[in-house]
Every structure is written in C-alpha cells, then in structure tokens.
Amino acid sequence: MNNDISEVLFNEAQIEEAANRLGKQITKDYEGQKPLVLSVLKGAYLWTADVIRKIDLYVDLEFIKISSYHGGVSSSNEIALVTDVQSDVKGRDILILEDIVDTGQSLQFLEDLLLSRGANSVRVATLLDKKEGRKVDIKADYVGFDVRNEFVVGYGLDYKGLYRNLPYVGILKQEIYS
C-alpha cells in the first residue's frame, strides 16, 4: 500500500496533535453541554475515536452514513442517506465528525437534515478541509488540516474501500485511479 502513495501529507504525530488541539477547543466551546457527536461513516471513524478521547465532557456518540463518491475519485453530486442516526436530534447540539470537507455538498445535506429535524445547533470538526473543491458556501467549525486539491487516502479515507488502514494521510498516485 505504501508504494501507492506519492507523498505523505500528514503523519501520525501530526494527526494526534490536531486531535488534541481540536479536542481542547471543543471542550472549551461546549462547556456545560452534552453534545451529540455524529461520526460520518466510514471515513471518519478513526478521526472520531481520536478526537472524542480528547474531549473532556459527557458526549453521546452516534453514527450516520451517507454516500456521494460511489467508489470514484470525485463527488457524484448525488447524496444518499445510507444509515440514519438512531437518536432524536430535536433540541440537541450536534457535533459532526467528518474525514474531509470537499465540495461541501454532503455536509450541507447533513446540516439541512439535522436542522430540519429540530437540532439546536450543528457544528463540524473535520480532519481535512479541501477548500478548492467547494461547490456550496459552507465551512467547518474545527479543521485539523487544510489540504490541497489532490486525491488523498489513509487514516479512514479510501479509494474503492482500500487504504483506510494507513496510519497517515497521503496522496494516492494518479496511475492507481486513472
């Protein structure tokens, strides 16, 4: 797998530092609250595990699965809710843990869904923010790293279900997916 990576962008130590930094800020921002942490499957599971262990508050944890890439390297612009959240979100403060914000369409879909169900607030903590890819005007509240417009894998991010188990985030060689 490592031979398929052209460049490591963020190593394990850098990711751990980002989780620590965001966990401290989230703890401060949600002081006195019990947020519902909503992890977006499958990509954000590692990021979620690392960040919530750094949050010094009571939190509820739920999972939701949406799909927009459908196995490709770019968003299909068609977002599907695959697995819904099980808890009632009405009146709750929601913190979405996302692996990457790219076009912003998936995040917009989630925010609209949760707010339409009566969520009190919705914030986002993403590992990666790819601002160059935005198609909608949306931003993450907490960002681990800004990333350039490359196809990245590792640390939960995949290509056709592979590479999620890499302990770092790297750029996938173009010849692998072209």
UniProtKB/TrEMBL annotation:
<keyword id="KW-0660">Purine salvage</keyword>
<dbReference type="Pfam" id="PF00156">
    <property type="entry name" value="Pribosyltran"/>
</dbReference>
<keyword id="KW-0328">Glycosyltransferase</keyword>
<comment type="function">
    <text>Purine salvage pathway enzyme that catalyzes the transfer of the ribosyl-5-phosphate group from 5-phospho-alpha-D-ribose 1-diphosphate (PRPP) to the N9 position of the 6-oxopurines hypoxanthine and guanine to form the corresponding ribonucleotides IMP (inosine 5'-monophosphate) and GMP (guanosine 5'-monophosphate), with the release of PPi.</text>
</comment>
<keyword id="KW-0479">Metal-binding</keyword>
<dbReference type="InterPro" id="IPR029057">
    <property type="entry name" value="PRTase-like"/>
</dbReference>
<keyword id="KW-0460">Magnesium</keyword>
<dbReference type="InterPro" id="IPR000836">
    <property type="entry name" value="PRTase_dom"/>
</dbReference>
<keyword id="KW-0808">Transferase</keyword>
<comment type="pathway">
    <text>Purine metabolism; IMP biosynthesis via salvage pathway; IMP from hypoxanthine: step 1/1.</text>
</comment>
<keyword id="KW-0547">Nucleotide-binding</keyword>
<keyword id="KW-0963">Cytoplasm</keyword>
<comment type="pathway">
    <text>Purine metabolism; GMP biosynthesis via salvage pathway; GMP from guanine: step 1/1.</text>
</comment>
<dbReference type="InterPro" id="IPR050408">
    <property type="entry name" value="HGPRT"/>
</dbReference>
<comment type="similarity">
    <text>Belongs to the purine/pyrimidine phosphoribosyltransferase family.</text>
</comment>
<protein>
    <recommendedName>
        <fullName>Hypoxanthine phosphoribosyltransferase</fullName>
        <ecNumber>2.4.2.8</ecNumber>
    </recommendedName>
</protein>
<dbReference type="GO" id="GO:0016757">
    <property type="term" value="F:glycosyltransferase activity"/>
</dbReference>
<dbReference type="InterPro" id="IPR005904">
    <property type="entry name" value="Hxn_phspho_trans"/>
</dbReference>
<feature type="domain" description="Phosphoribosyltransferase">
    <location>
        <begin position="13"/>
        <end position="160"/>
    </location>
</feature>
